[in-house]
Amino acid sequence: MTFEYELKRDMDEVRWQIQECEGKHVQQAIYSTFMDALTQVCFTCGKVRSTILWEGNRSWTPGNEVQA
Question: What angle do CA 65, 28, 46 make, to 5 degrees?
């Protein structure tokens, strides 16, 4: 499965999206205390939505798709 990455400005945007998908889609929500970040993986939408900015991350860069 291929996921599209969506950077969200704040956790409220991610929370809103989680609520929109709730009960309709298969999803996982993850909170990182280390990064103080919220991430949603929606398997039905095929999207990862997060407040984590991946710029400079050696394992993934914007524009690349995440393979699962």
Answer: 35
Radius of gyration of the chain (CA): 12
pLDDT, tens digit only, all 68 positions of the chain: 889 999 999 999 999 999 999 999 999 999 999 889 999 999 999 999 999 986 655 555 555 555 55
Question: What are the residue boundaries of the structural domains of the chain, listed by start?
Answer: 2-55
Beta partners for residue 31, in sequence order: 38
* Pairing label, strands 2-7, 27-32: unpaired
Q: How many helices (H) and strands (E) does the chain have?
A: 1, 5
pTM of the model: 0.77
User: Dihedral sign, CA of 65, 45, 22, 11?
Assistant: positive
Q: Are strands 2-7 and 37-42 parallel, antiparallel or unpaired?
A: unpaired
